[in-house]
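Session log. Operator J.P. requested a structure for one protein chain; no other inputs attached. Running the standard single-chain path with token output.
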Amino acid sequence: MLVEMHTNTRPLNIGAELIKGSLVRAQEGEQIKPVNILFTGFFVFSRLGLIIQFDFNNKSYLL
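Structure written below.
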């Protein structure tokens, strides 16, 4: 899985790492709701004008 962020600000990168970590745990079978995380990431980062790209099994989702 690849999570790309186009930003140079460290606090936002930390936020992206938290989202990425949650998505990785979801792939490992942990009981969480990745859809909620995706929507949370979308609303938080879209408000900040960032581009985030999630790549699941060669299917790219650009938020």
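Operator note: Residues 13 and 51 are 12 Å apart (CA to CA).
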